[in-house]
Amino acid sequence: MANTNMKTLQQYTFYLFGVGAAITAFVAAGLYMFQSKLIYPSNFPAGSRSHVDTPDSQGMPSYKDVTIDTPDGEKIKAFVLLHDENEPGYVAKTVLLLCPNAGNMGHALPIVRLFYQQMGYNAVIFSYRGYGLSTGSPSETGIKTDARALYNYLQSHPQIKNTSLVLYGRSLGGAVAIYMASQFGGSEGSIIKGLVLENTFLSIPKLIGYVLPFAAPFARLCHQKWESEKLMPLINPEIPTMFLSGQRDEIVPPEHMKGLIELCPADVKVVEYFENGTHNDTIVQPQYWEKLAAFIQRFVPKEEKEKY
User: Fold this and answer.
1) Contact by Cβ (8 Å): 54, 47
2) How far apart are CA 46 and CA 81, in angstroms?
3) Phi–psi pair at 120, nearest 5 degrees
4) What is the pLDDT of residues 183-206, one digit of tens each?
5) pTM listed for this prediction
6) Over the stretch 70-86, which tens digit does the pLDDT of each residue have?
7) Taking all residues of the chain, what is their mean pLDDT, rounded to a whole number?
8) How far is CA 167 from CA 49, 123, 206, 241, 256, in A?
9) How far is CA 148 from CA 143, 170, 252, in A?
């Protein structure tokens, strides 16, 4: 009887081990194969891939709907909003808005309006590949290709090339901004003159254990890395940098922002903490916009008197 029970127990243990191994393999395979859908929910909210609000719906009728061709054949959609450079008080500054990982550029138009109408700056926003009406499927490599194509467009634009470009990135957009600043901000003739980051992570693998604790052991399988911690030290120290960190961020641990702050080589580094700010509502915390406007006004090179 004892031998029979022992044999049964061994079989049961082996069964549990087999089930556990199968579950582990399933989780690992799922993380590897479907991580792009988890990281880039481009159809959230529903309809985000079929409808994009335009600036005129937010009271900004003067804009250009631009299509940018990438080297690998994708078509990236962007809105470009410019002030008349011959108008008195024109400020030669342009803000490039780099979106988070959900929605499309139409969802961020209220933010565009703040930069464009209230602060008086030119504004540019685009949908990454696979987002909004841009073609393709999102990936780290692809979005970086989009960013390079967009920067080339801005650098050669007859009006924008004569302005100071501020990169404003939230969450994933912050990682894109860090990439752009590290790659293009140190080159001769670069128009990148300011960097603003909100609730951005050190890297996707380091974020996985926080967002998906059960998947932490498989973080090494993540091929969408966005290793901002490696790129941050490469940024030109002459680019003034601002950090806007929500201390109740439930998606990106505030420690990630603190890590980026420590790695930032900027000669001018401004850090603002928002004690009640979560991942998505830091942007509406008291004094957020006043502090952001003051940073751009004070530290980003300007040619004429500000409107804000």
Assistant:
1) no
2) 27
3) 85, 20
4) 999 988 999 999 999 999 999 999
5) 0.88
6) 999 999 999 999 999 99
7) 89
8) 24, 10, 24, 10, 19
9) 9, 18, 26
Catalytic residue numbers read 171, 249, 279
Neighbour tally for 274: CB within 10 Å: 23
Q: Is the pLDDT of residue 218 over 80?
A: no
Token reading at 125: 């926003």
> Terminal CA-to-CA distance of the chain, rounded, Å?
86
Instruction: Specify the amino acid at residue 13.
Output: T
Residue at token pair 């992570």? 201
The answer to whether residues 237 and 267 touch, using CB atoms and an 8 Å cutoff, is yes
Tell me the two tokens of residue 260.
């980026």
Q: In which band, very low, low, confident or very high, does the pLDDT at 177 lie, cut at 50, 70 and 90?
A: very high
d(CA 46, CA 49): 8
Token pair belonging to 143:
């979005």
Residue 38 to residue 129: CA distance in whole angstroms: 16
The pLDDT confidence band at residue 211, using thresholds 50, 70 and 90, is confident
Say what percent of the chain tops pLDDT 90.
Answer: 78
Closest CA to 70 of 141, 145, 136: 145
* 145 C-beta neighbours (distance < 10 Å), count: 18
Mean pLDDT of 112-125: 98
